[in-house]
Design a protein that fits this description.
Strand order of the largest sheet: 11-10-9-12-8-13
Low-confidence stretches: none
Shape: globular
Mean pLDDT: 92
CATH class of the largest domain: Alpha Beta
Structural class: alpha/beta
Largest sheet: 6 strands, parallel
Number of strands: 17
Length: about 375
């Protein structure tokens, strides 16, 4: 089921690489927000008539309240038969032949790092691995700026002589176009991440990859990342069931990291402010992933500078799910919320996770920073 509306562009609020944020007056006169991707379509202008996919908002779901432009109905930029449109002005020689969003009207060709025409093709004929690189794995996109802020803060505080290279791999569990992410755009502008990789049907990264294994290898050997972060794009999917959520992919990613001889570090999702009991303490998503999906040992950093009742609750969860025997649990008592606040203040944009900021849900932010510190500890020991 898809809900459609037709409207006219009235305002272009902002634009960045491959995306426009616009306002559209639909046929009944309502002004609505929309997103238009410009990687494979021309930019819209005020007065353009557009066809919108309004499904998520009409069903009162996510997407930030935005509709999405599916087609421009009256642009002066007509495409002739056999003509292509792309913002990179790529020649047919280097467009690539790997299709993303396959067998849909929106399928597009990318040059994947593994394919024959790629300059890095030969690398994937070798037996490459991660060589002990720490890989931060989590289930929420909002963890990305928190992880990066903490690592930037610690590098500034410790005045390191050589800046760490951070590679971000975006999975396909949330938004598929990386250009949807405001955080990715800003972190790249700040040079807090050194490159991005999209795999599967996610697309738009600096490097395109076919699957999670080759994406990880690309992060290590093409981006030459000292620390790799793997998270989905904005918009986790959940059903209120044990396994029916896209955060479960974190377990598959951890398994891939272990197979490739990296160090999987699971970023905990911890909260004592959520109304739903299943997300109290360590979220049931993370507990299930660690107990049932992750097959080999992973590092699980846990904040422990908490009230006693919260520490007791977390320890009981770890015991109930038998995680002490399966994984390496590290309790961080030296990290404080005040220091976390200093780190996120370096980031010049708002950070919210599931609608909550640091002052609303401090232990969520604290847990994420513990994971970032664990990765830094691994690198510092090398």
């Amino acid at each position: 089921m898809i809900y459609w509306r037709i409207g006219m562009v009235t305002t272009i609020d902002k634009e960045r690489k491959n995306v426009q944020f616009i306002q559209v007056e639909e046929e009944k006169g309502e002004i609505i927000k929309a997103i238009h991707y410009t990687d494979v379509q021309p930019s819209v202008q005020i007065g353009y008539k557009v066809l919108l996919n309004t499904t998520a908002v009409d069903l009162q779901l996510g997407s930030g309240g935005f509709h999405f432009v599916y087609m421009i109905l009256n642009s002066n930029k007509h495409l002739n038969k056999g003509q292509s449109y792309n913002t990179n002005n790529s020649s047919k020689k280097n467009i690539g032949h790997i299709m993303k969003l396959r067998y849909t009207p929106q399928q597009r060709a990318v040059l994947a790092c593994e394919e024959t025409d790629s300059p890095t093709h030969s690398m994937f004929l070798e037996n490459k691995n991660l060589e002990g690189t720490p890989v931060l794995i989590g289930e929420l996109h909002s963890m990305l700026p928190i992880l990066c802020s903490w690592m930037q803060y610690k590098q500034n505080h410790e005045k390191v002589s050589k800046k760490l290279k951070i590679g971000y791999v975006m999975s396909e569990g949330g938004a598929l176009p990386i250009s949807f992410s405001e955080h990715v755009a800003q972190l790249k502008r700040l040079n807090w991440i050194d490159g991005t990789i999209t795999y599967g049907h996610s697309y738009g990264g600096d490097i395109e990859a076919v699957n999670k294994f080759t994406a990880l290898i690309a992060a290590k050997h093409i981006l030459q990342a000292d620390i790799i972060i793997v998270l989905m794009g904005p918009g986790i999917v959940g059903t209120g069931t044990k396994l029916g959520h896209t955060g479960i992919e974190a377990g598959e990613i951890a398994n891939a990291v272990s197979i490739l001889e990296g160090i999987p570090i699971m970023t905990p999702r911890i909260s004592f402010q959520r109304k739903r009991d299943r997300h109290k303490g360590i979220s049931h998503h993370v507990l299930t992933t660690l107990s049932d999906i992750v097959l080999q040992n992973a590092r699980v950093p846990i904040p422990f500078n908490l009230p006693k009742e919260y520490k007791d609750h977390i320890q009981q969860q770890l015991d109930d799910y038998h995680l002490y025997k399966k994984h390496t649990i590290s309790f961080y008592t030296e990290l404080h919320v005040k220091e976390v606040q200093k780190s996120v203040e370096l980031y010049p944009f708002e950070i919210k996770s599931m609608g909550m900021e640091l002052h609303d849900d401090p232990y969520f932010f604290l847990g994420v920073c513990c994971a970032a510190q664990e990765a830094l500890n691994v690198v510092n020991r090398e």
